[in-house]
Amino acid sequence: MSQNGIVLVASVSIFSDDKVLMIKENKPAAINKWNFPSGRIEYGEDILYSARREVKEETGLDVNLIAATGVYNFISSTKNQVILFHFIGEVTGGSLKLEEDEILDSKWIKVSDLATFENEDLREPNVIKQIIENLLRENLYSVSVYHEQLIKSFLLS
């Protein structure tokens, strides 16, 4: 969702066993860049629903959101102000089927190996590195802080 130059994004680190899923994007602003499954929050959409929807659209996987690493505010490479809500999800169903037009590749990687990505290989390296640091340090927050009515009120105002 974009309102007054601000883009709201939901992003998810998907875990299965001891590995996390990374995707290689094929979007105009991020060709051949690694990222966590993510996308814009649609107008009036619940943020938790948006996160699960984006995961399903990009990967074919169903997830249960179990925690959050935080909210990240930054200026993107396309000069948009982005507020990114990042969650941790566990696979509950579906099968890995990448969105053909927007995702080139994927790989399951140990959390400790996330730090080996070079900045030029990541979509928004400063933000992705912050998320990776929070994952490594297990700086996690309850998803219960995201109340549907609060988010809907913000989106509709």
Top keywords for this entry?
single chain; 157 residues; Nucleoside Triphosphate Pyrophosphohydrolase; 3 helices; 8 strands; globular
Describe the structure in your own words:
- The protein has 157 residues and is an alpha+beta fold.
- The chain has a single domain (2-152), classed as Nucleoside Triphosphate Pyrophosphohydrolase (Alpha-Beta Complex).
- The chain has 3 helices and 8 strands.
- It has helices at 47-59, 125-137, 148-156, and strands at residues 2-3, 6-16, 19-27, 30-35, 38-40, 61-75, 81-94, 103-110.
- Strands 1, 2, 3, 4, 5, 6, 7 and 8 form an 8-stranded mixed sheet that branches.
- It is globular.
Quick recap of the structure?
This protein has helices at 47-59, 125-137, 148-156; strands at residues 2-3, 6-16, 19-27, 30-35, 38-40, 61-75, 81-94, 103-110. With 157 residues, it is an alpha+beta fold. The protein has one domain (2-152): Nucleoside Triphosphate Pyrophosphohydrolase (Alpha-Beta Complex).
